[in-house]
Design brief:
Blueprint lengths: L5 H20 L6 E7 L2 E7 L6 H16 L4 E7 H8 L15 E8 L5 E6 L13 E4 L3 E3 L4 E9 L4
Antiparallel strand pairs: 1-2, 2-8, 3-4, 4-5, 6-8, 7-8
This protein binds zinc ion (ZN).
Amino acid sequence: MDRYPDEVRAHTALHVVKGAVVRVLGEDAMWTASTYVSGRHGRLTVKFNRKPAPEEIREIERLANQKISEDLKVEVLYLPRDEAEQRFGNVIYDLFPIPAEVRNLYIVVIRDKDGSIWNINACNKRHTETTGPIGGVRLGKPRFRASKQLLELPFDVVDRPG
Ligand SMILES: [Zn+2]
């Protein structure tokens, strides 16, 4: 578990948690407004229209941990921006823009076991090579900011027991 720094684990967890968020809350939650990582702590903020129920948060956590235990490959592609947009569409982007002068993108793709895309995002940060080394995630209390229609989902990465 000390192969990767905590921040690399927590950052990679953002991608896994985001996939779970979209599965549980639907396409309305597909746009990331901001991300934050410090040590083992992370926070994913998505555009959304309500505060999720506690059961939904538990389901997001369960699904994310399932994908971590499945040790899915974290693939990084380096592509001309036009090509990346043609191949994958706007889904690679977040609400915070990548400057127009950036012509090549690192595209991080986590594929589910059936080959479908669990999460895809243009991201130039460092990631674990598979999801297993993240260990696990524990979600904290969500915060919904109604005036901004933003849902903040804090989490911590934890060591897998055993
Ligand atoms: Zn990333």
